Amino acid sequence: MFGSCRRAFAEYVCASAKALALKPENVTFAQAASAPLAAFTALQGLRDKGKIQAEHRVLVNGAAGGVGTLAVQIAKAFDADVTGVCSTRNLEHVRSIGADRVVDYTREDFAGDGQRYDLIFDLVGNRSLPAFRRILKPKGITSEREGRPIRG
Where are the domains of the chain? Predict the structure, then answer.
């Protein structure tokens, strides 16, 4: 079993059965322990902060990391069109989890390719805010502060 509960950092805790799931045999305990935090971060960023909707064009900068991998899959579950940004070695992985378009940041500048997005979920912080503003659609979704990408 694995799952999550509030304010716990312990080997044993009491948790609601609704907050638990069976750990797949091919997943280590360490991987299972990290899944809830990464998944909640992605879900809250996309759904709660980003107000993701079907057919939104979503950019996930850092799509091959723990939160990014889940963000790509969650965005696809919302029927969004997803662009994942990652390195060369992770291109196939990000495609395999559902990204509609994959940008290799070692070869392309995703901020300068002419694409525009409804939602930018930035997990890296390697671009300036003006660069993100240029690729955000006029009514694009950002965090509370106008013109800023949602940062995981």
Answer: 39-151
What are phi and psi for residue 94, nearest 5 degrees? -65, -35
Q: Is the pTM of this model over 0.85?
A: no
CATH code of the region 39-151: 3.40.50.720
Extract the tokens encoding 10.
């312990």
Residues 54/119, Cβ–Cβ less than 8 Å? no
Q: What is the torsional sign of CA 17, 37, 8, 27? A: positive
The 3-state DSSP class for residue 57 equals strand
pLDDT by position in tens, the chain (length 152): 677 667 666 777 787 888 778 888 998 988 887 778 888 899 999 999 999 999 999 999 999 999 999 999 999 999 999 999 999 999 999 999 999 999 999 999 998 888 999 999 999 988 888 888 899 998 887 643 444 556 65
Could you give the CA distance from residue 46 to residue 85 in angstroms, rounded to a whole number? 16
Q: HSE, CB side, 13 Å, CA atoms: give it for residue 62.
A: 19
